[in-house]
Amino acid sequence: MKVLLLNGSPHEKGCTYTALMEMAGQFQKRGVETELFWIGNGPVRGCIDCKSCWGKGRCVFDDDCVNRLIEKIAACDGLVIGTPVYFGGIAGGLKCVLDRVFYDAKRLFSGKPAAGVVSCRRGGAGSTFDQLNKYFTISSMPVASSQYWNSVHGDAPEEVRADLEGMQTLRLTADNMTWLLRSIQAARAAGVEPYEREVRVKTSFYKPQ
After folding, report:
1. Which CATH superfamily is domain 2-189 in?
2. What distance, in Å, lies between the first and last C-alpha atoms of the chain?
3. Contact, 77 vs 42, CB < 8 A?
4. What confidence tens digit (pLDDT) does each residue in 56-72 have?
5. CA–CA separation, 160 vs 164, rounded Å?
6. Residue extents of the structural domains in the chain
7. Residue 68: Cβ within 10 Å count
8. SS3 of residue 136 by DSSP
9. Distance between CA 71 and CA 129 in Å, rounded?
């Protein structure tokens, strides 16, 4: 089993990285392989709703990390996305990446356990955590929970490590995701498969006169 840890911060080894590494250590303690993927801090375009990706599972623009990330998420068993708080929401670069990653490829992620991790200095963690979870819950991804919402506080890595409750919350999230992964693995071994999905229905609330 393998969990992909996505670092959505423009800082490669800052507070978000510190939080993700706490989870990585716990996953490895439970025998789960991890891989860290950093989106970088270079320019990344946002989704332009061109719909060219439909049915392809990859973005038409191939000049950044988006398509590599889609491939890695599709190949892993679980996903953790970490982000700092920017103005009460996820980091701008990560927002651009996730909008394109989940636009069509979200159907490839169905059934994979996921969790969001938020790093903030003081406030905005709740709204940011909610924003991350919306990507998972529109994609039929089971969300691994914990004893509190997955956030750590601090303005530097050493301050994050001093947030004992936050770090414990992340370790429990890793344990709960590991349990989900093992349960899914056991179910498949016993011949229990997901129900066949209905063809998606889309309803427009516009009624022409």
Report:
1. Flavodoxin domain (3.40.50.360)
2. 54
3. no
4. 999 999 999 999 999 99
5. 8
6. 2-189
7. 13
8. helix
9. 24
Residues 6+ apart with CB under 8 A from 23: 5, 34, 80, 117, 170, 171, 173, 174
In the chain, the percentage of residues whose pLDDT exceeds 70 is 99
Question: Could you tell me if residue 55 is left (phi over 0), alpha (psi between -120 and 50 degrees) or otherwise beta?
Answer: left
Note the pTM of the prediction, 2 decimals: 0.95
- 78-86 and 114-120 as β-strands: parallel, antiparallel, unpaired? parallel
In 3D space, the residue among 55, 65, 26, 31 whose CA is nearest the CA of residue 169 turns out to be 26
Tens digit of each residue's pLDDT (9 = 90 or more) over 1-49: 999 999 999 999 999 999 999 999 999 999 999 999 999 999 999 999 9
Rg (CA), the chain: 17
The pLDDT, as a whole number, for residue 209 is 64
Q: Please, which pLDDT band fits residue 202 given cuts at 50, 70 and 90?
A: confident
Residue 99 near residue 8 (C-beta atoms within 8 A): no
